[in-house]
């Protein structure tokens, strides 16, 4: 019993995956393209043609069943009239298929002219053979696709530039950043859009650098105004000194900042508030 079920399942699968042999030269293109017509019929762009598309789909499915039945009849002479009627139906379906191809062509042209990218991509995704067979249509599709790709590239570039600018703005940096440079603890406090305090703590000593900063591309330039050293006894020694320290921005996100001065270990920082 189990073997019989397996055989029946295999037979059913075989039938579903093939076409009738009778007049297969005419039938195969119709039956093989049905899956694409079904996809087209579901698109909003073809709403005004939905009725004719569904009628065509039902007719194709119906005739495919007829074709399989005729294939299985042993007495071919006894079904001569049925074979002729099937042939006539196939020719009718071919004519209807050509009309559908023309409809797809016109709707696609209209979609491109209207610059409706959503409908355009939906049509392209069906992979209907007509989209590649018609040379004129293919040229229009390729040209519009290139235009859309260029727009997308430009939009991504603008987004990237905006994000790049935002990350380097005071809006992103205004929080307190804590991290380390090798064994030293580091705190960066961006007071405003120009003022910065850099605190370094190593063992029991601490150094606080106050100054101004400037961000340009991947470079942060800190110009010191005052450097305060604090020893283990909390004694402070402040020097008024102007030094330019240039850091390369190795990484910057909304939560992480990595800076590195020339010949120095990188400073790895995390936003804490």
List keywords for this structure.
single chain, 273 residues, alpha+beta, Lipocalin, 2 domains, eight-stranded antiparallel barrel, 8 helices, 9 strands, 51% helix, rod-shaped, disordered N terminus
Description of the structure:
- The protein is an alpha+beta fold and 273 residues long.
- The chain folds into two domains: 2-155, no CATH class; 173-271, Calycin beta-barrel core domain (Lipocalin, Beta Barrel), CATH 2.40.128.
- 51% of the residues lie in helices and 26% in strands.
- The chain contains eight helices and nine strands.
- The chain has an eight-stranded antiparallel beta barrel with strand order 1-2-3-4-5-7-8-9.
- The chain is rod-shaped.
- 15% of the residues are buried.
Quick structural summary:
This protein is of the alpha+beta class. 51% of the residues lie in helices and 26% in strands.
* Major sheet: 8 strands, antiparallel, barrel
Q: What's the total number of strands?
A: 9
Question: Average pLDDT value?
Answer: 90
Helical residues, percent: 40-55%
Q: What's the shape?
A: rod-shaped
Low-confidence stretches: 1-16
> What Rg do the Cα atoms give?
36 Å
Q: How many angstroms separate the termini?
A: 71 Å
**What is the total number of structural domains?**
2
Structural class: alpha+beta
Strands ordered across the widest β-sheet: 1-2-3-4-5-7-8-9
Beta-strand content: 25-35%
Oligomer: single chain
How many individual helices? 8
Can you write the helix and strand succession as a string?
A: HHHHHHHHEEEEEEEEE
